[in-house]
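ARCHIVE CARD
Drawer: 12
Card no.: 0347
Subject: one protein chain, sequence and derived structure
Cross-reference: see card 0346
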Amino acid sequence: MEPIMHTEADWAAQLHSHDRRVTKQRLAVLAAVGQLPHATAEAVTDAARATLQALTLQSVYVVLADLTALGMLRRIEPPNSPARYETRTGDNHHHAICTSCGKIEDVDCAVGHAPCLTPSSTTMTIKIADVLYQGICSDCGP
């Protein structure tokens, strides 16, 4: 699935729908995550500073946490890596990570709908199944 490219107007509408003000900081963070899927907070900060030079890492962490809580961003936590952020939300996709270079790719749900895994037994209604595939990417191996 191709990533959805959001415009500033799209982000502004989403922020308003969540009763959030449209700020330069929020827009800069959203644009940075949109351009750099699976980016760390530090990478988001570096990218966002291209348009908002005074942006601090602490401000980025606050914005990332808020936007993740709203469901506008998704936080993933690969093993042995800092948290990563992406704008692809709500579709229950998974991730593949290269154990050699750390590259992360989106993997669509195997069955095609959420949740794509049905546990053998549970008393819970499953809403999200989170799978992390690990292997070697084509750049690192055969």
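Annotation on reverse: The radius of gyration is 16 Å. The chain has four helices and five strands.
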